[in-house]
Amino acid sequence: NAGVMQNPRHLVRRRGQEARLRCSPMKGHSHVYWYRQLPEEGLKFMVYLQKENIIDESGMPKERFSAEFPKEGPSILRIQQVVRGDSAAYFCASSPTHSGSSYNEQFFGPGTRLTVL
Amino acid sequence: GNSVTQMEGPVTLSEEAFLTINCTYTATGYPSLFWYVQYPGEGLQLLLKATKADDKGSNKGFEATYRKETTSFHLEKGSVQVSDSAVYFCALSRVGQGAQKLVFGQGTRLTINP
User: Fold this and answer.
1) pLDDT per residue over A26-85, tens digit each?
2) Which residue, among B10, B15, B52, B14, has the nearest Cα to B31 in the 3D structure?
3) pLDDT of residue B55
4) Which of A102, B63, B110, B111 has a Cα at 20 to 30 A from B37?
5) How close, in Å, is residue A49 to chain B by CA atoms?
6) End-to-end CA distance of chain B
7) Buried (b) or exposed (e) across A13-44, using 16+ Cβ within 10 A?
């Protein structure tokens, strides 16, 4: 059973370009989470999605960032008009279910390292 | 709000030394607490967890006890190995609505020399 897959592992963009980060959850997992890790900082929650639904996007910047998890295919984190401050490691995690208020273990991918020149 | 503070790194030890990585938290209610480990080039893996006060999580020789009175969840191992070299993250999850959202500390890089 393959783990959480993220691609690309490394992405270089120039200021003003768009960045698309992909995440394929583990088989049987229908919940996806995105976290961002800025240099020398811990991971910060960005967004939580289920298939075709955004459940919690309280950690997403208000502009330029969007996320989706379509019925078919991977989850996509999209950053438009990237700036140097977007340079970070972006981690995706997935979990099998969400039952009310209980915590379900999140399985993390290897991350995408975004560098904005 | 909820937050996690970890011992600053990097930490360098010799093989078979005793390890402690401090972690304290601020949270409303009674969060669940976790330690994650990240080996070079890989994603984060859950190392251990504790869901209520006085619980002790343990795995691979690592232990951490949920101390409500000191709001701490320090990671310990009696005898470290070179293969334990990694970055360690302390984290909590909120109770109730938003329980799926993990709050992480900044991470502690551990290097074990032979």
Assistant:
1) 998 889 999 999 887 789 999 999 988 999 999 999 999 999 999 999 999 999 999 999
2) B52
3) 95
4) A102
5) 11
6) 41
7) beeeeebebbbbbbeebebbbbbbbeeeebbe
